[in-house]
Every structure is written in structure tokens, then in C-alpha cells.
Amino acid sequence: MKTVARLLLVASLICGTASGAWALPGPTEGFVGVVIWVFLAYCALIVIAQLLVALHALRRLIEESMAKKKVSRPVILR
């Protein structure tokens, strides 16, 4: 439940910062606007995919550091 809430929070923050783009109607009209939106959507997919991979790696790193590690035992060499 917490992860879903966090994901929604991050998504709303990302979408909220893009609201300034709606104020500029000029370059997004016609076919050029469609090309721009497709390009931006493609870039967003790449950024989101990399963000998910980074968050997954960070989570695994934190879990491994918090996990109980085996206690090494001394070995006597003769």
C-alpha cells in the first residue's frame, strides 16, 4: 500500500511540473505538435524505465545492507 502511494506521489509530482508546458500553445499545433508529443512520450518512457531500474537497485542495496550477515568464524592454519 505504501509503495502504491509513493508511486502515485512521484507520478503526480512529475505531472505537476509539466503543467508549464500547457501554457505555450504555439509549437504544439498541427503535425509538428504530434511529432513533438511522440518524441516527449518516448523520452518519458526511457526516463521512467531507467528510474525504475535505479529504484530497484537502490532497494536491493538497502535490503542487503540491512540483512543479517553470516558471522565468519576463524580458521586455524597449520
From TrEMBL:
Keywords: Membrane, Signal, Transmembrane, Transmembrane helix. It comes from the Bacteria. The keyword Signal applies. The chain crosses the membrane at residues 33-58. Residues 1-23 form the signal peptide. The keyword Membrane applies. This is CcmD family protein. It comes from Desulfuromonas soudanensis.
